[in-house]
Specification:
Blueprint (H helix, E strand, L loop, with lengths): L13 H7 L2 H36 L4 H15 L3 H12 L6 H22 L13
Helix pairs in contact: 1-2, 2-3, 2-4, 3-4, 3-5
Length: 133
C-alpha cells in the first residue's frame, strides 16, 4: 500500500511558520532570512567583481584602486555599491550612465589619475633632488 501525505499549500511559507510560534518554526524563519540575505550579497558581489574588472581594463589600475573608484562613485551618488556596479556593467553593454554617475565617474577618474601621478613624482613644492650636493 502506498500512502500519500498532503501538505497545505503554504507549508513552506515564512508567515505560516511564524504563526506557529514554536522555537523550531522561529529558527526556520530566521535561517531562511539569513539564507536570503546571503544569496543577495553573493549576487551583488559577482556584479561588483565584474564592474571592478571593467574599470581595471578601462582605466589601467589594480583591483583595489578599481574598487575604491566604484566606492567613490557610490558615495558621491548616495547609491549602494551593487547598484553602481550594475550601472557600470550596463554602460559597458551600451546603456547610458545617469548624469550624476557620469559626473561622479569623471571626478573619481580624475582623482585616480592625480593620485597615480602623485606616486611617481614628488609634490610640486618639494625639490626633485636632482640639483642637490
Amino acid at each position: 500500500m502506498h500512502r500519500t501525505t498532503l501538505l497545505p499549500g503554504n507549508w513552506w511559507d515564512v508567515a505560516a511558520e511564524a504563526a506557529v510560534g514554536n522555537a523550531a518554526g522561529q529558527d526556520v524563519v530566521a535561517l531562511r532570512a539569513e539564507i536570503d540575505q546571503l544569496r543577495r550579497a553573493l549576487a551583488g558581489r559577482a556584479v561588483i567583481d565584474q564592474a571592478c574588472g571593467m574599470v581595471m581594463v578601462l582605466a589601467p589600475c589594480r583591483r583595489g584602486a578599481a574598487r575604491n573608484l566604484l566606492v567613490d562613485i557610490s558615495r558621491q551618488c548616495n547609491t549602494k555599491l551593487p547598484d553602481v556596479a550594475v550601472a557600470v556593467v550596463a554602460a559597458w553593454e551600451g546603456e547610458l550612465l545617469s548624469r550624476p554617475m557620469q559626473r561622479a565617474l569623471r571626478h573619481a577618474l580624475r582623482r585616480l589619475y592625480t593620485e597615480d601621478r602623485g606616486c611617481d613624482s614628488p609634490p610640486a613644492d618639494e625639490p626633485s633632488g636632482k640639483g642637490r650636493p
